[in-house]
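Bumping my old thread because nobody answered last time. Still need a sequence for this structure:
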C-alpha cells in the first residue's frame, strides 16, 4: 500500500509502492535544495530518486549516535513505556480473564501483540542503520490495526445482530476460511517488501487503487456493523444484563477505533497532504505528527485496561488495596413459636 514511512530524524519518508524516496518534507518535494530536487509535483518521476535515497541514508548513518537528541529520547521513552504497559496487559489477561465476555479475549490479545510489534519497530528504527527492514515491519503492524478492528466489528455484529450466523466462528472450516480471507486481503501490503528496490514502479498506480479500495471496503464494513450494533442494542428486546455487557464491549470497541484514528491514520493523512500538497510547515508541526504516532501503542492498551469493569476492578484492587476489615458473618436464628391450642378434655 502507498504510505509515507518515517525513516529518520530529518523527516525523510519512504513512499512505498510509488518507488520514491523523498527527503525532507519541510523543504517540500517541489523545492528541496538539499536534495537538488527542484521542479513541480508533476515531474516527480523525473527526479533522481537513487541520489536522494543515497543522500538521506548517508545523513541518517551520520546520526546513528545521536540518541541523546530530544526526539530520540522521547521516542525511546514512549516505546519502552508502551512495551511495559502491553506486557502488563498480557499479564492482566492471564491473571484476570474476562468472566463475562471470554470470547472477546482473543481480539484483545491480537491487539496487544499488534501494539508490541509497533513499539518494537519504533525502538529499532530511531535511529538504526537497518531501519528499512524495520519500517516494513512497522507498516505491516500499522495496516493490521484496521484488520483487527474490522474483524472485531464483524464478530460483534454477528453475535448481537445475526446470532444465527454464529457457526461461522465455531466451525473449523469457516474459521479457516476467515483466516485465509484475511491473509489474502493482507497480502496487498506484501509488495512493500520489494518496493524499496523500485522494481514495481509501473504497477504503482494499480496497487494504489487496489489499496484504496481495500481500505474503503474495510472502513465501510466497520461503519455498517457499528450502526447496526447501535440500533440493535437500542431497540431489540435483549435482557438488561446482556444489553449492559454488550454496550460495555461496544464502547470499548469504539474507543479502540478512536485511538488509531487519532494517533495513526490522522498523522499518515497529514503527512500525505504535506508531501504531495507542497505545504511548508515548521519543524514543530512535523515533530508533533511523529510524536502522535509514537504514542499510539502507549494509549491503546489503556483503553482495554480502564474501560472493562473486570480489569478496572482488578487494577484498583492492586494499587488501592482495601483495608482488611474482619467481616463477621451474622447468623440469625429465627425461632418460630407455634401455638397449639389445647383440646378440651372430652
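Sorry it took so long. Here it is:
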Amino acid at each position: 500500500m502507498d504510505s509515507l514511512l518515517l525513516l529518520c530524524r530529518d523527516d525523510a519518508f519512504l513512499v512505498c509502492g510509488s518507488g520514491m524516496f523523498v527527503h525532507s518534507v519541510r523543504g517540500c518535494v517541489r523545492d528541496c535544495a538539499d536534495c537538488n530536487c527542484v521542479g513541480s509535483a508533476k515531474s516527480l518521476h523525473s527526479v533522481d530518486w537513487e541520489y536522494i535515497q543515497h543522500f538521506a541514508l548517508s545523513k541518517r548513518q551520520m546520526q546513528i549516535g545521536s540518541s541523546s537528541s530530544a526526539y530520540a529520547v522521547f521516542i525511546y521513552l514512549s516505546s519502552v513505556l508502551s512495551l511495559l504497559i502491553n506486557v502488563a496487559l498480557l499479564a492482566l489477561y492471564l491473571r484476570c480473564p474476562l468472566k463475562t465476555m471470554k470470547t472477546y479475549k482473543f481480539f484483545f490479545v491480537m491487539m496487544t501483540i499488534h501494539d508490541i510489534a509497533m513499539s518494537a519497530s519504533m525502538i529499532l528504527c530511531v535511529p538504526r542503520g537497518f531501519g528499512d527492514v524495520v519500517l516494513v515491519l512497522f507498516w505491516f503492524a500499522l495496516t493490521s490495526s484496521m484488520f483487527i478492528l474490522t474483524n472485531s466489528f464483524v464478530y460483534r455484529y454477528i453475535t448481537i445482530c445475526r446470532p444465527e450466523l454464529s457457526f461461522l466462528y465455531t466451525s473449523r472450516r469457516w474459521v479457516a476460511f476467515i483466516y485465509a480471507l484475511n491473509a489474502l486481503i493482507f497480502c496487498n501490503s506484501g509488495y512493500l517488501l520489494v518496493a524499496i528496490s523500485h522494481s514495481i514502479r509501473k504497477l504503482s498506480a494499480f496497487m494504489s487503487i487496489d489499496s484504496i479500495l481495500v481500505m474503503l471496503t474495510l472502513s465501510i464494513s466497520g461503519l455498517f456493523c457499528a450502526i447496526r450494533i447501535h440500533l440493535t442494542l437500542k431497540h431489540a428486546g435483549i435482557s438488561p444484563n446482556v444489553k449492559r455487557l454488550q454496550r460495555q464491549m461496544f464502547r470499548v470497541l469504539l474507543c479502540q477505533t478512536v485511538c488509531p484514528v487519532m494517533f495513526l491514520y490522522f498523522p499518515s493523512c497529514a503527512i500525505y497532504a504535506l508531501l504531495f500538497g507542497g505545504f511548508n510547515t515548521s519543524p514543530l508541526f512535523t515533530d508533533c505528527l511523529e510524536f502522535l504516532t509514537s504514542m499510539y501503542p502507549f494509549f491503546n492498551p489503556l483503553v482495554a485496561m480502564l474501560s472493562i469493569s473486570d480489569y478496572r476492578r482488578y487494577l484498583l484492587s492492586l494499587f488501592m488495596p482495601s483495608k482488611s476489615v474482619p467481616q463477621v458473618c451474622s447468623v440469625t436464628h429465627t425461632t418460630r413459636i407455634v401455638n397449639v391450642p389445647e383440646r378440651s378434655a372430652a
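The beta strands are 3-6, 13-16, 20-22, 31-32, 37-38. Let me know if any region looks off to you.
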